[in-house]
Amino acid sequence: MRTKDIVYIALFAAMTAALAAIPGILLPGIGVLISAQSLGTMLAGSILGPKRGALSQLLFLAMVALGLPILSGGRGGLGCIIGPGGGFLLGWPISAFAIGFLFKKSWSNLTHMSAFIYIIIGSIPIMYTMGILWLHIITLIPIGQAFMGSILFIPGDLIKAVIATTTALVVKRAYPIMED
């Protein structure tokens, strides 16, 4: 792995951590926090590609597991990963990989609409499936209740997908990192 790759991975892990500065909202009934940090996952995959995007999110999760307070609300530690919202967090590297894979596959003819669709396909189904199943297993909340509670994430995730789409396409034109 080149030094440039390591720098990109660390930069996007740090950017995901910096998004914790935006206050989160605790979802009633399921105990999971809505935060801006999944935007970091969307950006990592769409700008860095599958491998580097996923590695940036794995680095972020390793820092959380070590106890760094880089989750929304100043939280950190292994308890955050094995707690109610852990499934969503564990979905971040997989989502970054999926988004990066879809972007890389159609890099030369990427449009605003296709980029938005790829971000949605690569993030929402993966993060929600892992998050809902994890929430059900860890808290014993019925899966239907976990699903219904998680629906509250969708409007925010759609807004984050619009931001990630626009940002990724601007970066693609100005400095196409994925072509490295």
Tell me the strand order in the biggest sheet. 1-2
H-E string: HEEHHHHHHH
Helix/strand structural class: mainly alpha
Taken from the alpha-carbon principal axes, the silhouette is globular
**Distance between the terminal alpha carbons, to the nearest Å?**
12 Å
Biggest β-sheet description = 2 strands, antiparallel
Helix percentage range = 55-70%
Total strands = 2
- The radius of gyration over CA amounts to 16 Å
Query: CATH class, please?
Result: Mainly Alpha
Strand content: under 5%
Q: Could you name the ranges where pLDDT drops below 50 across 5 or more consecutive residues?
A: none
Q: Structurally, how many domains make up the residues?
A: 1
CATH topology: Arp2/3 complex 21 kDa subunit ARPC3
CATH architecture: Orthogonal Bundle
Mean pLDDT: 93
Number of helices: 8
Report a brief summary of the structure.
By secondary structure, this protein is mostly helical. It contains eight helices and two strands; from the N terminus they run H-E-E-H-H-H-H-H-H-H.
